Amino acid sequence: MAHTAFTGISAEMQECINECTRCHHICLATASHCLELGGKHADPTHIGLLLDCVEICQTSADFMLRGSERHQLVCRVCADICRACAESCERMGRDDEMMRQCAEECRRCQESCERMAA
Fold first, then answer.
1. The whole model's pTM is what?
2. 6 lies in a domain?
3. Which domain holds residue 85?
């Protein structure tokens, strides 16, 4: 595995950190979007899942950034929550651009975290 010159983080890990950061941002924006839309989009279970995804993505990125030996455990949980969040966003409606983008980013983050957890 190639490592970056200054941090010792592999290119694959850096990509996962980037995916987690992007997922964190889109899920946070999507939670606000859903609350503004109201109705089914503001369902507490859906909003809770978006916020769970926000937090676990941030935590996962933090574990990798500081080189924690336990990052694989956190990445495994992150992948599971990202999968569930993607499914929830897809159920909310693929015709909504924000929901579609959130689901797509959650899937990318899920796949990247699955690789890191292996």
1. 0.91
2. no
3. 11-117
Is residue 85 included in any domain, yes or no? yes
Residues 46-63 pLDDT 10s: 999 999 999 999 999 999
Bridge partners for 3 per DSSP: 10
Q: In whole angstroms, give the CA distance from residue 13 to residue 27.
A: 21
> What is the tally of structural domains in the chain?
1
Residues contacting 46, CB < 8 A, separation 6+: 34, 40, 88, 92
What CATH number should be reported for the domain holding residue 37? Answer: 1.20.1270.360
Long-range pairs for 34-43 at CB < 8 Å and ≥24 separation?
34/92, 37/96, 40/92, 41/92
